[in-house]
Amino acid sequence: MYTKLTKTAAAMALVAFTATGCADMSPTQRGTAQGAGIGAALGGVIGASTSGGGSGRATRGAVIGGALGAVAGNIWSKRMEAQKQAMEQATQGTGVQVSQTSDNRLKLEIPSDISFDTGRSDIKGNFQPVLNRFAQTLNENPATTVTIIGHTDNTGTDAINQPLSVDRASRTRDYLAGRGVNANRITIEGRGSREPIASNADANSRARNRRVEIYVAEQGQG
């Protein structure tokens, strides 16, 4: 028979799980959100049902469970590690940054001297070998999903920069699709000049902001 606290925790579980079903999320976002929601739900139930639990313990359990679940929504498998190593080798000396994110995604950050000239979205010649090797790793790991985010510097207005950033992500997706990667696995976004990683105060810093970020996730199972 449920106690009042257990009912409260169960309600938290239902809300947390339902909240993860947003239709407008990318597959990667859904994986992370589902992990967080389920983790929060389980944490809340455990916290409430533990001896002397109380609402405070249920809340703390939900917070801790959510934090752990967010990472568990995307997994870092041997395949992901192998893909990371392959891309590190393929991009060595190019300036492309390859890393593992805190939520277990593979991140490639491609700077402007590799990717795009000012005001342009066409794929540069020295970007193509990187994308060719990347496409190969994606075809070897068909369970992964990809998010490509385009960025610009602050040259020009938002009316110019936003569609330009989307077009850069779109061109990158189309290039990968042309090398056998299923385009349905790829989500694109454009952030315009809203997320600079440098000051935009000079040509070098603007070049750093003119970039593409690519995220790869392998979804947790069960």
TrEMBL record:
Pfam short name (any one): OmpA
Name of the protein this chain belongs to: OmpA family protein
Gene3D superfamilies (UniProt xref): OmpA-like domain
Protein location: Cell outer membrane
Record keyword Membrane present: yes
Source species, domain of life: Bacteria
Keyword Signal appears in the UniProt entry: yes
CDD domains found in the cross-reference section: OmpA_C-like
Limits of the OmpA-like domain: 103-220
Annotated keywords: Cell outer membrane, Membrane, Signal
UniProt cross-references to InterPro entries, sorted A to Z: Bact_OuterMem_StrucFunc, Gly_zipper_2TM_dom, OMP_bac, OmpA-like, OmpA-like_sf
Signal peptide: 1-23
